[in-house]
Specification:
The chain is of the alpha+beta class. It contains two helices and six strands. The radius of gyration is 12 Å and the shape is globular.
Length: about 100
């Protein structure tokens, strides 16, 4: 599994092979807990694009707003303040930085 943690330890971006939204969310929450991070995004390639799941434990960044922003014009996204998810019709190229 590939992941990126920002240099201040505020957020986490992960790539996984798992495409089940609930399992993706659980995996993101587990990584956030292990790294003591308050915001995380996990994504996986899907035959039709990308699925993503977002978790937020901070009032400063709402998961649903980030999901809607990411999916604007290229997919669908939404949820709640603490957890959200969505789908992008076009996927990021897999090239996440090596694990830290």
């Amino acid at each position: 599994m590939k992941y990126i943690v920002d240099e201040n330890g505020n957020w986490l971006l992960m790539q996984t092979e798992i495409r089940d939204q609930e399992k993706m969310g659980d995996l993101c929450e587990q990584a956030m807990k292990e790294k003591d991070i308050s915001f995380g995004v996990i994504w996986a390639k899907d035959p039709a694009g990308c699925k993503f799941s977002i978790r937020s434990q901070t009032n400063e960044v709402r998961a649903d707003e980030v999901a809607e922003y990411l999916a604007k014009s290229v997919g669908a996204g939404g949820g709640q303040a603490a957890n959200a998810g969505g789908f992008l019709a076009e996927c990021l190229r897999s090239g996440a930085s090596p694990e830290r």
